[in-house]
């Protein structure tokens, strides 16, 4: 059973960079695209992007100029960096799998990490 | 981006009821449509992928159908733990956009 766990600061100051890490357990790294999704009351679920273990990435165009997703396969973790944050980036951030064998659906999710942008 | 529109936005029902939630895509997505259930304070849970395939461990009272632009999630007989929010998601092309959600209330 794949397990994902987000970690990182719960509060980030405006204009700074939000950084979250997702630790992966019990998964074959090459099976999935490693994905970030966020959820805020105003916007529902928003797909941020994903990374494949070989390093290729795919980002939501609405965030592309501010987002970087990276991966450390040796440590079995992947990271989200979102720069120049504003209050609109306040959300629960989920890491998840995207499974090409299951129609590119997200079959495993972390529990979510609430990040508040506030000075 | 492909826009996903769910209806209704909220729905009141009772235990034992049959419930239908619809999802419409702004363009043809073939059968690249997934359904998720989210309970308060929890992560979304995959119910159905590729329009009609039941994820492992999901009860058979959940079913999905549709193709192209119009899709349906059916819950045949509601149980107490089915009262949650349901989201559709298209995975035809990135960004993999979600519907706004349907809040299923008792």
**Structural class estimated from helices and strands of chain A:** mainly beta
Q: How much strand content do the residues of chain B show?
A: over 45%
- Quick one: how many beta strands of chain B? 10
Unreliable residue runs of chain B? none
Question: Could you write a compact summary of the structure shown?
Answer:
The complex is a heterodimer of chains A (119) and B (106). Chain A is mostly beta strands and 119 residues long. Chain A has no helices and ten strands.
Features:
heterodimer; A: 119 residues; mainly beta; 10 strands; globular; B: 106 residues; six-stranded mixed β-sheet
Describe the structure.
The complex is a heterodimer of chains A (119) and B (106). With 119 residues, chain A is mostly beta strands. Chain A contains no helices and ten strands. In chain A, strand 4 and strand 5 form a beta hairpin. The termini of chain A are far apart. Chain B has 106 residues and is mainly β. In chain B, 0% of the residues lie in helices and 46% in strands. A six-stranded mixed sheet of chain B has the order 2-10-9-4-5-6, with no helix packed on it. In chain B, strands 1-3-8-7 form a four-stranded antiparallel sheet, with no helix packed on it. The model of chain B has no long low-confidence stretch (mean pLDDT 97). At the A-B interface, strand 5 and strand 9 of A face strand 5 of B.
Draw up the topology in text.
The complex is a heterodimer of chains A (119) and B (106).
Chain A: E1 3-7, E2 11-12, E3 18-25, E4 33-40, E5 44-51, E6 57-59, E7 67-72, E8 77-82, E9 91-98, E10 113-117
Chain B: E1 4-7, E2 10-12, E3 19-25, E4 33-38, E5 45-49, E6 53-54, E7 62-67, E8 70-75, E9 85-90, E10 102-105
Parallel strand pairs in B: 2-10
Antiparallel strand pairs in B: 1-3, 3-8, 4-5, 4-9, 5-6, 7-8, 9-10
């Amino acid at each position: 059973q794949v397990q994902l766990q987000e970690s990182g600061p719960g509060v980030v100051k405006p204009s700074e960079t939000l950084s979250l890490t997702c630790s992966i357990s019990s998964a074959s790294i090459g099976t999935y695209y490693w994905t970030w999704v966020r959820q805020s009351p105003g916007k529902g679920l928003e797909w941020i992007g994903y990374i494949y273990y070989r390093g290729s990435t795919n980002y939501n165009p609405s965030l592309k100029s501010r987002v970087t997703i990276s991966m450390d396969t040796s440590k079995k973790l992947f990271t989200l960096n979102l720069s120049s944050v504003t209050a609109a980036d306040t959300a629960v951030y989920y890491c998840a799998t995207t499974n090409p064998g299951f129609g590119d659906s997200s079959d495993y999710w972390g529990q979510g990490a609430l990040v508040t942008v506030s000075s | 981006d492909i826009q996903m529109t769910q209806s209704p936005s909220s729905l009141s029902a009772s235990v034992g009821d049959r419930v239908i939630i619809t999802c419409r895509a702004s363009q043809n997505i073939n059968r690249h449509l997934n359904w998720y259930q989210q309970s308060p304070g929890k992560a979304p849970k995959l119910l159905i992928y590729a329009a009609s395939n039941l994820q492992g461990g999901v009860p058979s009272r959940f079913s999905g159908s549709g193709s192209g632009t119009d899709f349906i999630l059916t819950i045949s007989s509601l149980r107490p733990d089915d009262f949650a929010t349901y989201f559709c998601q298209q995975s035809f092309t990135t960004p993999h956009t979600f519907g706004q959600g349907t809040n299923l209330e008792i």
